[in-house]
Design a protein that fits this description.
The protein is an alpha/beta fold and about 300 residues long. It has ten helices and seven strands. The chain has a seven-stranded mixed β-sheet with strand order 3-2-1-4-5-7-6, with helices on both faces. About 5% of the residues have low confidence.
């Protein structure tokens, strides 16, 4: 009688164990399904700007960092917009950057893409044409946007750099087989239709973040990768003090119940500033380099409060 009871009890324990494993598997599959629903199902829109520090490389790893679901989407350092274009968020979208010319270009693509395309196609493609167009200080937003995209297409390495007077000063890039992807610009225009595009400081942008929102944060890198020193030009754009301000904002976002994904260079100075965060290291290929730059594999840090699902 006792052995029969032991056998039944063991069977019940095994059955309960299998049920728990089954429920855990179902929960995992539901989480993955929710994450897959956040990924694009329609025609993929590519960034229409080459942008130093762009996050196109992160897309293949992005799924593990996404929450199961989120409300509004925020990008306070828009740049080339790789992650926004890839995710295609369905709710309210707030895209911002301190670079007024950049945001104005996005606004013109959103509101008048055909007019911008028409103007770009009127520009010549020679070195002389490039410097002629670069020298203009257009007043109309449509022409400024066309100039911005054109210079980005033909400049050296797609770098955005201005002098002390605010004038774009990147030299001609001698690129071959350049063509304007008009269809992608039109797709980008559609993707941008319901977005809020605002030129402003990241601190002001983050004020509007609420519980359940997702914030993708990709600041200009103040330091080079692997403890290789500071990036002189970027220090003017985003200092170590700005990094410290941003680090404090991560705690604020967490307290609000928002989700964040922040990227940064792998560097001891970054670890010290973001000491409250647990870094995730990802290795990628170096894609844009200036004079004396070495192209190869480099490591980046990702800081997030989102539980990863592999």
């Amino acid at each position: 009688m006792l052995s029969k009871w032991v056998f039944i009890n063991k069977a019940a324990i095994i059955n309960r164990f299998l049920n728990l494993r089954y429920l855990a598997l179902i929960n995992l599959l539901n989480t993955l399904a929710n994450q897959l629903s956040l990924l694009p199902t329609e025609t993929t829109v590519k960034p229409f700007l080459r942008w130093a520090g762009g996050k196109k490389w992160l897309i293949k790893n992005l799924r593990q960092f996404l929450p199961a679901k989120f409300n509004n989407y925020h990008e306070p350092f828009l740049g080339g917009g790789s992650i926004f274009f890839y995710l295609n968020p369905s709710k309210n979208v707030y895209l911002s950057d301190l670079n007024n010319d950049l945001i104005e270009t996005y606004i013109q693509i959103r509101d008048d893409v055909e007019g911008v395309i028409k103007l770009i196609n009127k520009f010549g493609s020679t070195e002389q044409d490039y410097y002629e167009i670069r020298s203009h200080n257009f007043s109309k937003s449509q022409k400024k946007a066309a100039q911005f995209i054109y210079l980005n297409m033909y400049s050296y390495n797609g770098i955005y750099r201005v002098n002390s007077n605010g004038g774009y000063n990147v030299p001609f890039g001698f690129r071959k087989n350049i063509s304007l992807d008009e269809n992608n610009l039109r797709l980008a225009s559609q993707r941008l239709k319901k977005t809020n595009l605002i030129p402003q400081d990241f601190g002001i942008s983050l004020e509007r973040v609420k519980k359940g929102d997702l914030v993708f944060i990709d600041p200009p890198y103040t330091v080079a990768h692997e403890n290789n020193g500071f990036i002189a030009y970027n220090q003017k754009l985003f200092s170590l003090e700005d990094q410290e301000k941003l680090a404090s904002w991560l705690n604020e976002l967490k307290d609000r119940g928002a989700y964040y994904i922040l990227t940064n260079a792998k560097h001891d100075a970054i670890l010290k500033i973001y000491e409250d965060q647990k870094p995730i290291e990802i290795t990628r290929a170096s894609t844009i380099g200036g004079k004396n730059a070495v192209r190869g594999l480099i490591s980046e840090y990702i800081f997030t409060n989102i539980k990863q699902v592999y």
